Amino acid sequence: MENAGKFYINGKWVDPISSQKMDVINPATEEVITRITLASEEDVDLAVAAAKRAFSTYSQTTIDQRLGWLENLLAIYKRRYEEVARTISMELGAPITMAREQQADAGTAHLEDFIHVLRDLKLEETLHNGETLLREPIGVCGLITPWNWPINQIVLKVIPALATGCTCVLKPSEFTPLNATLYAEMIHEAGFPAGAFNLVQGAGPVAGATLSQHPDISMMSFTGSTRAGKAITRDAAENIKRVTLELGGKSPNIVFDDVDVEDRITFSVLDVFNNTGQTCDAPTRMLVQRSIYDEALKVAKRVGEAAKVGDPSVEGDHIGPLVSHIQFERVQTLIQAGIDEGATLLAGGVGKPDGINEGYYTKPTIFADVNNTMRIAREEIFGPVVAMIPFDTEEEAIKIANDTPYGLAAYIQTPDAAKADRVARKLRAGMIRINGAFPRPGSPFGGYKQSGIGREGGLFGLEDFMEIKMLHKP
Fold it and tell me: Which end of the chain is more exposed for a tag (fewer CB within 10 A), N or C?
């Protein structure tokens, strides 16, 4: 990729000041794809300065102008869609079918929705008391995105920033940097003014911290671990900048005894295995009513043992590798912790799948007889690992579900609509998915407690990037 080793600053591809390099690894083969440069503080400063200069004019552009650039971008993205899917598959390890149908598709779906919402955005309105309210872009935004759903998160941050008249500096994950490079090429081709969007590659402790601490950054938007989110919040506090966070999760999945056990348990296990378990709102804690618990274990064991792991470049519904050796070691450690703490291993376990010697592949794993004090029930594993916990009553299920520092999502499986609604209103989570319902573009994505601050997507995603100004007239 021609621009892989460069940064995009002030409308141009530039050579970095930093000389620190990092290999980008294909997680399926452990081979080097390319090398990127990790930004220094000076590189970040140049990108922020470009965004600051551009803000004075870009913030004054009209919604119609921005809609024109966004529609150009949408057309370009659709043209390069397959390239995006194959790049994500190569650097993340997502199976190509999944990368095409889910990972790359998110870039189209969210952009289309933002265009729709922007057309109806009210920048000025009269309040009930007769005074005038204005909505204006907040300023220069620092955007830090993760490796697990790379284009999804880039679109959910970059597009609302540009749509509202903000300028921005994007720092994607250093483990999946190439899809961000592709997106920068598309933004350039779409005709956005120089400096409105800037891209630097780099690691969190240098590039990320420099953005968070920078006095010319008005807002930080971060998706990643809760640990890193806390560090960004501390860094940003010095300048009192706005911070939005989309962090970790340990989502409960309450399966009541009135379900079709075969259907709902199969769905629940495969939902965790999707994206190799590397999804923040995955239903990793499966709470099953005791009267169907034994039957549920049999179904889960069969589904877990039947799950296929394989080459992400091959079409199919198999599971790919984890993204890196770091993630592989973390997942292995927590699987071993589940064994050591006395959970019953139904399927999978430590080590790589049989016959696989290279790549960061892990066994799809299911634990039974888990209690909510175990590490596998408390910590975000971020791998294809299911923890099954029995419960007796509706009240007990709600108590277990809410007993977590996280609150990103929760799942309910029951054909009883009244019960689903009743339980949903008692769960402390930002998103409740009932009977497999999937979030639609435009709905706010985010959570309670240590799962974050703010919401992404649709109107709520735009509003996070805007300031409120009041006009008080005599």
Answer: C
